[in-house]
Specification:
The chain has 407 residues and is α/β, with parallel strands linked by helices. It folds into two domains: 4-220 and 369-403, Rossmann fold; 246-332, formyl-coa transferase, domain 3, CATH 3.30.1540.10. It is 37% helix and 14% strand. It has 17 helices and eleven strands. The strands form three sheets. The chain has a six-stranded parallel sheet with strand order 3-2-1-4-5-6, sandwiched between helices. A three-stranded antiparallel sheet has the order 7-8-9, with helices on one face. A two-stranded antiparallel ribbon has the order 10-11. Helix 1 crosses helix 7. The radius of gyration is 26 Å and the shape is elongated. The two termini are 26 Å apart. Residues 1-5 have low confidence and may be disordered.
Length: 407
């Protein structure tokens, strides 16, 4: 590994190997790759499952054009290796000999077969950091259970709280959109891997990191655990808001969030609405009563809100320090003057796709360079370059392994 202080890319001295399928390991490795680390993505010969998830241009499935795969895997080089075969595991070993960090999300019960058992790897490569992401962690009675995004949302307690303030007990808990639990698992793997890297720089020793998606989700449930431990009260998605007004409403051209629970905010809102007589009714005299009578309040406010365009109402409220907020569509996000000013969205020239606009750095750095340096790899694109060019595998042997389906 080169000296980090002399590398202009921030984390450019780090060598990462990524294995597994789906979102979590790919996102964890992406976070480090975007800051300069050299990442080699190891896919099975059939390709990562995200290659088949899209979205795709013109809704035509193509494993080389998946929007999700491209987003998660730009800045990486890609190889294919069948870790179920001994020769495949031997090739993985060559990668790990020179790697600083291995990030993977292979389930615990499948790791030994793929050469990814953490104790074995740590014993064989004592300087290697092994960050494994799984649904329930490496230990415990559920360690060998399979799990997916729906399991993580429910096992972690998130779904039980969503959608908040629901009046419909007959409806089931609601999983958040997309693969949010997998993204959280990946973010935790990236953070803890870099903490372990700091330890390695001091001691020369690696370690195993065990990331549980269930625990990653449970860690972000705000004060809901404390409601139980402090007061014996269990929170859920059911019930109503304690304070009001607090709801979503329709404007002429979109939705806006009304969240006006402080008394001074409410008074300024009443003035903005033209001081309607109903605002003086006893049932709306304080924020608790306004919450208890939210249905009536919302009905009275809806016609007034519907006469506005979102941006006009938002700006009028902001001028009076009333906390309204637009509910942005994806198109509005791309057109946001604030995000454009911060240069959040970035361009990527992806072969076969042309220029794509992708989300960029979620943080701004003073002295570390965040960049998209290379497009997402085509399936197995860098296999010969990596194994033959960098690790000395004879090209004739590589050709034989390819023919045998090992790479």
């Amino acid at each position: 590994m080169s000296t980090p202080a002399k590398d202009p890319r921030g984390l450019g001295a780090l060598r990462i190997v990524e294995c597994g399928q789906g979102v979590s390991a790919a996102f964890g490795a992406k976070m480090i790759a975007d800051l300069g680390a050299e990442v080699i993505k190891v896919e099975p010969p059939g390709g990562d499952l995200t290659r088949h998830r899209g979205p795709f241009p013109n809704d035509q499935p193509d494993p080389e054009k998946s929007g999700l795969f491209i987003y998660l895997n730009a800045n990486k080089r890609g190889v294919t290796v069948d870790l179920g075969q001994s020769e495949g595991r031997e090739l993985l070993g060559r990668l790990l000999e020179k790697a600083d960090i291995l990030v993977h999300n292979v389930p615990p019960r499948e790791r030994a077969h793929q050469g990814l058992d953490s104790p074995t790897l740590c014993a064989k490569y004592p300087a290697l950091i092994v960050a494994s992401i799984s649904m329930y962690g490496d230990r415990g009675p559920r360690a060998n259970w399979r799990g997916y995004e729906l399991n993580a949302s429910n096992a972690g307690g998130w779904a039980y709280l969503s959608p908040g303030a629901s009046p419909y007990p007959e409806l089931p808990p609601l999983k958040p959109f997309g693969a949010q639990c997998d993204f959280q698992g990946g973010a935790h793997a990236a953070l803890t891997s870099l903490a372990a890297m700091r330890h390695k720089l001091r001691t020369g020793k690696g370690q195993a990191i065990d990331v549980s998606e269930q625990e990653a989700i449970a860690a972000m449930l705000e004060m809901n655990f404390m409601h139980w431990t402090y007061a014996g009260r269990e929170t859920s998605r059911l019930g109503s808001r304690v304070l009001g007004p607090w709801f979503l409403a329709d404007c002429q051209d979109g939705k806006i969030l009304v969240l006006t629970i402080e008394e001074d905010q409410w008074q300024r809102l009443v003035e903005l609405m033209g001081n309607p007589e109903w605002a003086q009714e006893e049932i709306f005299k304080d924020r608790v009563l306004r919450a208890q009578n939210m249905d009536a309040l919302k009905a009275l406010m809806t016609e007034w809100i519907a006469s506005w365009k979102v941006t006009d109402l938002y700006q009028a409220a902001q001028e009076r320090r009333i906390p309204f907020a637009p509910v942005n569509t994806m198109r509005q996000m791309y057109e946001s003057d604030h995000l454009l000013e911060r240069k959040y969205f970035v361009q990527l020239d992806q072969p076969g796709m042309g220029k794509l606009t992708l989300p960029g750095a979620p943080s701004q750095y003073g002295k570390i360079k965040w960049s998209l340096r290379r497009p997402a790899p085509r399936l197995g694109q860098h296999g010969e370059e990596v194994f033959c060019g960098e690790f000395g595998v004879p090209r004739e042997r590589f050709a034989r392994l390819k023919q045998a389906g090992v790479v």
